[in-house]
Amino acid sequence: GQNIDQPTEMTATEGAIVQINCTYQTSGFNGLFWYQQHAGEAPTFLSYNVLDGLEEKGRFSSFLSRSKGYSYLLLKELQMKDSASYLCAVFSGGYNKLIFGAGTRLAVHP
Amino acid sequence: GAVVSQHPSWVICKSGTSVKIECRSLDFQATTMFWYRQFPKQSLMLMATSNEGSKATYEQGVEKDKFLINHASLTLSTLTVTSAHPEDSSFYICSAPTIYRDRWYEQYFGPGTRLTVT
Questions:
Q1: In terms of CB atoms within 10 Å, which of A102, B28, B83, B107 comes out highest?
Q2: pLDDT at residue A3 tops 80
């Protein structure tokens, strides 16, 4: 079967750093995506990891370990606008589609 | 970046009627598009894969006769919710993958369609 797990909710303080973890078990693996979604809006692309290691993009970084079936999204210098849901999704090559986790709702407080 | 549009952005319909939602790739060709449904505070659930020029592939548990998908051109896929009921009220989102080195890469999402069935 296919399974993607991430925490349901997280809270953090403005200016701080937060790490959102994602573990996965899928049939076939062709990359892992992180998306940000604000309420009532479509997801927006944040990062894509297909090889092990860290990908950095400004305040956002994403890490992947394929052997452990594990990824995390690191958000630095948190801003209030970062309050959103963060979706971990695995591109399952065997099925040619993105499988989404349930999402992590992040609340950033002053 | 690539742009995907959806129309309408929101729709209210009466129970028993049908509603058509359009998904267009504006600046690239998409032989494949995906349709998702999202209930409040839940993640995206893949409903079906829309293939240009052939039948759609539906996920387990999704009624193909209720959710009709037509992918008539390389830039347009439509989802028709037939005989809609209140439980079909949801946020419907389409996406289209781009191709990079002959492999699917990033998916671009449409802005979504909020369907409310009264």
A1: B107
A2: yes
